[in-house]
Specification:
The protein has helices at about 15-30, 85-100, 125-135, 155-160, 180-190, and strands at about 5-10, 35-45, 45-55, 60-65, 75-80, 80-85, 110, 140-145, 165-170. With about 190 residues, it is of the alpha/beta class. The longest helix is centred in the middle third of the chain and has 15 residues, at about 85-100.
């Protein structure tokens, strides 16, 4: 029996767009929902980084392209991007901790988009995600990257959990699986 729903797929295939559609549908049926998604930041037609956007409307930088490769302070980097861990944690951790302390009368949905390399620099985030997955009152609707290179511990842990249903999103199915994902989230709330 699934308690959580995750989407996986190649970068740019439409995972976040699908999460946003599911979120809108759940919101409009009055289901309590909180969480965050990651959005590209573009300047002059090129991607310069990613922002974290919470469902309550707060926004902050997750990462930006770094022009300077020689920096003295400890940096968290993924490719050309430098991760702003402080900004990420300030936005996401209070929301995750809060979602775990709701009333259990009605199961909340918590959107976590995404659990990827950038986000996993945060030990506190890893801990909060694990707590949310084991807590009883919350259904996680999240995204995880497809395996590439060195496996990411938390991602593989989620992928192999018995209580997680994983949908693979592709260009072919991304427009047709909305109802399936919605139905899966609904059945997790029962």
């Amino acid at each position: 029996m699934s308690k959580h729903v995750f989407l996986t797929g190649h970068p740019g295939v439409g995972k976040t767009t699908l999460i946003q559609k599911v979120t809108q549908a759940l919101k409009s049926s009055g289901i309590p929902i909180d969480g965050f998604y990651t959005e590209e930041v573009r300047e002059g037609g090129r991607r310069t980084g990613f922002d974290v956007v919470t469902l309550s409307g707060k926004r902050g930088p997750l990462s930006r392209v770094s022009s300077d490769s020689s920096t003295s302070r400890r940096e968290y980097r993924v490719g050309q991007y430098v991760v702003d861990l402080v900004s990420f944690e300030q936005l996401v951790l209070p929301m995750l901790r809060n979602v775990n302390h709701g009333s259990d009368a009605e199961k909340k949905v918590c959107v976590i988009d995404e659990i990827g390399k950038m986000e996993l620099f945060s030990q506190a985030f890893i801990q909060a995600v694990r707590q949310t997955l084991t807590g009883s009152g919350t259904v996680v609707l999240g995204t995880i990257p497809i395996p590439k290179g060195k496996p990411l511990d938390l991602v593989e842990e989620i992928r192999s959990r018995k209580d997680v249903k994983v949908f693979s999103v592709s260009k072919e199915n991304r427009n047709s699986i909305l109802q399936d994902v919605l139905a899966a989230v609904e059945s997790c709330r029962k």
